[in-house]
Structure formats: structure tokens, C-alpha cells
């Protein structure tokens, strides 16, 4: 199986937000639902060195049925492996554009500031030095997930 199919993926519904976090087993390729965004980001941040396998989920093995099936009942997106996990106190947000052309990525800071680029993160850390002790600009990635076009509802596919 090619590397992209072994990456962690999450699905979005047509309300333009992520409603299920999931990861694909590197051995049996079944999808396992991950309960929280934080757990998903932890898995994603070390995926290349420590691929996910079913046995990492308590009480689950490759012999068990998949938690969720990859199909067109929802729109799926795939995150790159090894993106940094979100720094403590910050929240990574992903929003699907209405035309399904791409997702926008931003971070909400602990003090409510919304950060939309690495330049904004750098300015934020300069303005609020109390965060510099625990947070680096390199702790953020604005790389958006790839939208799996075969799962976009046909009536919503962006026309070329």
C-alpha cells in the first residue's frame, strides 16, 4: 500500500467541520476512530517513526471489524504525517471552504487570538512573551489536509 494510504485521515461533514478523527492501521489498513483531536495529533506527530497499528487502541486487534469505512457517506481529508501536534493551550482549527476547493487552517491561542500564518504566530509570541518559554514558531503548521475528491458529493464538486 502506498504511503499516503497509510497516513492518518479524518473526515468532515458538509457542515464544513471535522466530526470524526480516524487513523488507518499500517498493518491491516482498517480505520480506527480516535476519540479526540489531541489523541489524533499525538499519533500524527510521530507517525513516520511510530506507525499506528490496531493493537495501540485498547482492546482492539486487526481481527476486529473497522470502526468506520472509507466511503462517500462523508467527505474525507488526509493530514500529512508528522505535522507537529498543537501546543498546549492552543487549538488547531480546520475549516472546509464552501466550494470544497481546500481547507483553511488556523490556531486559536489561549488568550483568544486567532493565528492564521507563521508570521502571525511570530508576532503573537513577540507581543505575548509569556508564551515563548513553552512555544516555538516551529510548533505550528498551517499545512491543510488534502481533500479526498472521490468523497465530495457530486453536486458540490468544484467545476474547473
From TrEMBL:
<feature type="domain" description="MBD">
    <location>
        <begin position="76"/>
        <end position="147"/>
    </location>
</feature>
<keyword id="KW-0804">Transcription</keyword>
<feature type="domain" description="CW-type">
    <location>
        <begin position="15"/>
        <end position="70"/>
    </location>
</feature>
<dbReference type="GO" id="GO:0008270">
    <property type="term" value="F:zinc ion binding"/>
</dbReference>
<keyword id="KW-0238">DNA-binding</keyword>
<dbReference type="InterPro" id="IPR016177">
    <property type="entry name" value="DNA-bd_dom_sf"/>
</dbReference>
<keyword id="KW-0863">Zinc-finger</keyword>
<keyword id="KW-0479">Metal-binding</keyword>
<dbReference type="Pfam" id="PF07496">
    <property type="entry name" value="zf-CW"/>
</dbReference>
<keyword id="KW-0805">Transcription regulation</keyword>
<dbReference type="InterPro" id="IPR011124">
    <property type="entry name" value="Znf_CW"/>
</dbReference>
<dbReference type="GO" id="GO:0003677">
    <property type="term" value="F:DNA binding"/>
</dbReference>
<keyword id="KW-0862">Zinc</keyword>
<dbReference type="GO" id="GO:0005634">
    <property type="term" value="C:nucleus"/>
</dbReference>
<protein>
    <submittedName>
        <fullName>Methyl-CpG-binding domain-containing protein 4-like</fullName>
    </submittedName>
</protein>
<keyword id="KW-0539">Nucleus</keyword>
<dbReference type="InterPro" id="IPR001739">
    <property type="entry name" value="Methyl_CpG_DNA-bd"/>
</dbReference>
<dbReference type="Pfam" id="PF01429">
    <property type="entry name" value="MBD"/>
</dbReference>
